[in-house]
Amino acid sequence: MSLNHILEMNNISKQYGESAVLRDVTLKVRPGEIHALLGENGAGKSTLMNILFGMPVIHGTGGFQGEVRISDQPVTIHSPQDAMTLGIGMVHQEFMLIPGFTITENIKLNRELSKPNLISRILGHELESLDHAAMAADAHKALTSVGVGIAQETLVRTLPVGYMQFVEIAREIDKTGVKLLVFDEPTAVLTESEADQLISVMKSIAASGIAIIFITHRLHEVMKAADTVTVLRDGKLVGSKPIAQTSLVEMAGMMIGRGGEELTGPPARKQPLSGRVALEVRTLHVDMPGESLHGLDLDVMEGEIVGIGGLAGQGKVGLPNGVMGLYPASGSVRLFGQEMPLNSPESALAHGMSMVSEDRRGVGLLLDESIEDNISFNAMQVKGEFFTGKGPFKIRSARKVRAHANTMIHDLDIRCQSPAQTAGTLSGGNQQKVCIARALTMNPHFLFVSEPTRGIDIGAKALVLDTLVRLNREQGLTIVMVSSELMELRSICDRIVIVAEGQVADILAPDSPDAAFGLAMSGISTQEGQNV
Amino acid sequence: MAELNIQRKSFASAVRANVREYIVTYVFLALSILFVIFSGRPLSDIFSQLMGRMSRNLFIVLALIIPIIAGMGINFAITIGAMAAQVGMMLAINWQLEGMTGLLAAAGITLPLAALFGFLIGSLLNKMKGQETIGSLILGYFANGAYQLLFLFIFGKIIPLSDRVTIIGATGVANTLNMMGGGMYMALDSLISIPFTTALYGVSALITAAAIILYVLKKMSLKQLSILVGSSVFFSLLVLLVPSVHQIVKGTSVPLVTFLLVAVLCVFNVIIMRTRLGQKFRAVGQSRSVANASGINVNRTRVIAIMISTVLAGWGQIIFIQNLGTLQTYAAHEMVGLYAGAAILVGGASLNRATNTQAIVGCLLFHLLFTVSQDAGKTLFGDANIGEFFRVFVAYGVIAVALVMYAWKGGKKAKPLTAREVQAKTK
Lengths: 532, 427
Description:
The complex is a heterodimer of chains A (532) and B (427). By secondary structure, chain A is of the alpha/beta class. Chain A has 4 domains: 1-87 and 177-246, P-loop containing nucleotide triphosphate hydrolases (Rossmann fold), CATH 3.40.50.300; 97-176, no CATH class; 260-352 and 445-532, P-loop containing nucleotide triphosphate hydrolases (Rossmann fold, 3-Layer(aba) Sandwich), CATH 3.40.50.300; 362-443, no CATH class. Chain A contains 20 helices and 24 strands. In chain A, helix 17 (458-475) links the parallel strand 21 and strand 22 (478-482). The longest helix of chain B has 29 residues, at 384-412. In chain B, 74% of the residues lie in helices and 3% in strands.
């Protein structure tokens, strides 16, 4: 009987507490094929791979249902070490290399070849001397099979970024008996030519009989490299197809798909938009780790709700953080025609911009302080409100703070026992409302809301979104909302800007086809998509 | 002509880079020379005292290297290793052990005690990754309380001791333990003590022979060979042929066995880095996350590094005490970590990089300053105390400067280019 599949993951389901992150997912990989695994953030790709590698996070949360078979044998993988023994290797997205080590030392890290010596015979094999010659020979062999001609004694620190990836691959290949390699977004940090080179290396590895799971969100690379594609969405299997039988647009549609949910737009405006430009962003560069922007241009009209979407790590969160001065930024930002100094949160607040941070517990709230103090804190610091007294002898006016907090609690429907309750004791949705209340206390003309519904339950989500729409419709507040949940953006925004690789990939209407969103997220605008 | 210019320029920039790297060392060198001049003491006197200080301090300084390479900064908690050694020494005196027997017994008691303490220190430092240097410094101070409880109350009251180490009518172990009578004073140092000149010629001959053998076996490059042989011959000839130099060193004798132990530790520090374990130390020191991802037990590796360092420091403290001849029960350990840490930093080590050479050079400069600071203080300010204060100030100052420089360099470290930036550059 010939071997059909090197890896079968049959009917995998996984729950973290109450929420199901994988539901009945099946993945089958044949020997020597490049199998693309496609999906948005949170679609379940990483959970599936964590199961494959037996990561502690899986076993620590009650294991999973379903069956994993390697070479037609059912297996149980309890640790990454088990996975390694079974011949499964991982090429990490962030290089797992030690800069001060040579290529050889990196390839052989913790798998060093060594020779026993006098002391090691007494005190154990940890003290065996390293066999540098044999290690170099192995490293050279692995590098050759990857097709890179670099000297194995080169320090990794001195290599160009693209080569580091090849060292990672060489390390996996050097492990004996590798049958399956997982590439986790390997092209994310590569230039185009390096990515092409990587894909040809992947093809030659696959040709030698090693199967490859290729996790990516770049659709055109899937078209170029993969033999089969499996698409996940919301923890469910959408489909698995040979590449020859699918297209870029179909894959994009599968990845985003609305899955039966109806789009319900927000209530219509009473007055049309003024047509004035509220915020004008030009060539904005933001140096925010993991979410950097590289020359983003954007216009936001007065009275609009603009949604910022895109995959994690592409820079969408960098926009509010950069404009508000929380991370180093360069470029030009004009608010209602007025030039704004960057890198100064204080002046951003003073100019009438406010932000509800995505990092609710870290940046947003002082959890041990009362609700009323959280609400009034910024206004006291920046605008000098809520004080009583004369000249330099000003003290905090408890009465004003309390009165304002009560208004906010009523307006935003914050569920609490008293304004003096500490913010940490509130539920996620109510904490979010306190954040919004604090932003509103600054009387902003312009509000950034970053990931307002992250980590709060569905009912609270709707309340927070309704609050935003109401502020926009009733007070004409211009809102820019960043969210990872596309459906949420599509339900309340006038326009949706998709950010990919630190720039605007496309600007779409909420009712644009699913495929258009999918293409934009992988950095292809609709016009380009139609040509493919 | 143009080529020559380029060469000169690169030489100049290399010098600049070197000065920037070792600025602390050069400042210290200049300061030491200045102090030597102002102290007005005969050079032969200074040299002889310096050799004594080197013999008793160098071992402890070398004990700091492994934790630095394992990325744990300067292990100021070697103070606790010194405490373990003092327990050993006190018991050896109590049991009336004499000479080398006493020292070996103390070293034997130190081994399990210091290893246990090292395990505890390492486990604690694992909970405060990134702040090990400060953590171990504070730990050293805190352990002093437990040490006093042990020596004032538990020993004597609970564990009976003889009147050799206690004072009748007083509580706890005596303040000063004298080893002159027991024969442990200088037991190690006086095993073989030879004139410095003889030692220099002997060591030079050994180095030359070893270097040539290694070169013939192709384990050493021609450059290394010429440096080693060249410097050996140079120093030997300097002492042999220049009368004024000969004058300085001729009165000094060196404890051969002590320095032999120091040499063994130097070799140990080099050899261990070439084993599986050493590779783990280096990997963990450079990147804990990468080491972890490749299956290295990071916490265990770090604990081992601290255990080795603590035990070595304990043995170093025994060398120190036997040289002094008296054990200041409640004070001998206090400055151990601070002075050793300052010494290795003076040698140009940083919180993440250290070599034997840096430890030796640092120890030499630091103790040279110590030797002459009192006299220099007297000449310069008319008060020997000022020199005394100055050297404590210098010890703290050097550590502060090293910490600041480390933070400063870390902040300036260039971030790796992203793919986009690389693309932009190639365009």
